[in-house]
């Protein structure tokens, strides 16, 4: 089912055992289409390649009060300026939510649990400014990574807002372009995956703007003291001096 420039609205509907590899999603919107899903279950769809329960490419998505379970990607978004994901459960996908290139994603009051690779993965694109101000109230439990994975390129001035209960996890590298600024607000928590891949390359400006009562914290993904067990391995790994990741 594809909103190919048109509009698809789904309410109190179950979509499962579906697979159309040309669209990359059991339910999809592309090329300016609009997809609205409410009170529904998207589950047990193809689990290989880039396939998703819900797929959006250059289109808009509103997903509310729904369950997305047992898919390769629960929701995969490739470029959007209108994204509302509120009051949903993402359960037992490989990746709960994957976003590549979004301006102001609304990700509010969702539950991410048992997603084997990661809860949320967000890739920044040099051509688009991304705001994190509309991300709040999400609960992450027993995911491969219990955090907001971040990678890509800061090509526009960008601010990492403080996200209660949700650490930013620098994964596969983040680059700040020349003449661009990444501002990290007071209270934000950034964790780094490894020295080789979890690094920030600063060609522009990085501003960490903590204060005496509300610090910015930069630490290892293995640090369970700050932000909990982000890499979901219990006590199997611990941070060590001289190795941020």
- How large is the radius of gyration? 18 Å
Number of helices: 0
Low-confidence spans: none
Oligomer: single chain
The arrangement of helices and strands along the chain is EEEEEEEEEEEEEEEEEEEEEEEEEE
- Determine the fraction of residues in helical runs and give it as a percent range: under 10%
Structural class: mainly beta
Summarize the structure.
Helices cover about 0% and strands about 50% of the residues.
Please tag this protein with its features.
245 residues, 26 strands, eleven-stranded parallel beta sheet, six-stranded parallel beta sheet, globular, mainly beta, single chain
Description:
By secondary structure, this protein is mostly beta strands. It has no helices and 26 strands. The protein has strands spanning 2-4, 7-11, 14-16, 25-30, 34-38, 41-43, 52-57, 60-64, 67-69, 73-80, 83-86, 89-91, 95-102, 106-108, 111-113, 118-124, 135-136, 139-141, 148-154, 158-160, 168-176, 181-185, 189-192, 200-202, 205-209, 217-220. Strands 1, 4, 7, 10, 13, 16, 19, 21, 23, 24 and 26 form an 11-stranded parallel sheet that branches. It has a 6-stranded parallel sheet with strand order 2-5-8-11-14-17, with no helix packed on it. Strands 3-6-9-12-15-18 form a 6-stranded parallel sheet, with no helix packed on it. The chain is globular and about 50 Å long. The N and C termini lie far apart (42 Å).
């Amino acid at each position: 089912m594809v909103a190919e420039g048109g509009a698809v609205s789904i309410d109190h509907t179950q979509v499962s055992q579906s697979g159309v590899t040309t669209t990359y999603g059991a339910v999809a919107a592309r090329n300016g289409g609009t997809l609205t899903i409410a009170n529904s279950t998207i589950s047990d769809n193809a689990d290989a390649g880039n396939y998703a329960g819900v797929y959006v490419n250059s289109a808009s998505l509103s997903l509310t009060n729904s369950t997305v379970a047992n898919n390769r990607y629960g929701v995969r978004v490739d470029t959007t300026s209108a994204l509302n994901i509120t009051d949903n459960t993402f359960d037992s996908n490989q990746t709960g939510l994957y976003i590549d290139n979004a301006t102001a994603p609304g990700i509010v009051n969702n539950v991410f649990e048992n997603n084997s690779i990661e809860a949320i993965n967000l890739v920044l694109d040099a051509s688009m400014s991304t705001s994190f101000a509309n991300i709040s109230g999400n609960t992450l439990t027993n995911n491969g990574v219990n955090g907001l994975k971040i990678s890509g390129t800061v090509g526009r001035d960008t601010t990492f807002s403080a996200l209660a209960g949700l650490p930013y996890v620098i994964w596969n590298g983040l680059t700040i372009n020349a003449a661009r600024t990444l501002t990290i607000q007071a209270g934000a928590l950034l964790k780094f995956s490894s020295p080789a891949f979890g690094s920030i390359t600063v060609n522009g400006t990085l501003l960490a703007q903590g204060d005496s009562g509300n610090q910015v914290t930069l630490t290892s993904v293995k640090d369970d003291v700050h932000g909990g067990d982000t890499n979901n391995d219990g006590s199997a790994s611990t941070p060590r001096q001289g190795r941020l990741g």
